[in-house]
Design goal:
Layout lengths: L9 E4 L6 E6 L3 H4 L14 H20 L11 E6 L5 E6 L1
Antiparallel strand pairs: 1-2, 3-4
């Protein structure tokens, strides 16, 4: 049995250049808030984006308390979330 909602949040990407560090884990995000990009000096993780990450984690926790567990043969839906530093989130669902 698995949780109905699984979050896969990791990595840091610069919105202004091609810098990324996909080895960064979500637990490390507090250290990255307002950190400048080593390549172009842009803000790598704005407080608005970090707030969104925390919101998504909370929502997933609450959803997993409310919804019943999945059996492992149930179809999974993958949703991606893009953030660009403004606090806006762009959701995309892949079947
Ligand atoms: Zn950059």
């Amino acid at each position: 049995m698995t949780n109905p909602v699984e979050l896969n949040i990791y990595g840091i990407k610069c919105d202004s250049c091609d810098f990324n560090d996909m080895a960064v884990q979500v637990n490390d995000y507090p250290e990255w808030v307002n950190k400048p990009c080593p390549k172009c000096n842009a803000n790598l993780l704005t407080e608005a984006d970090y707030k969104n990450v925390k919101l998504l984690i909370k929502l997933a926790e609450i959803t997993n308390i409310i919804l019943p567990k999945n059996s492992s043969d149930e179809e999974k839906v993958t949703m991606t979330v893009e953030m660009n530093g403004t606090g806006e989130m762009d959701f995309d669902i892949k079947g």
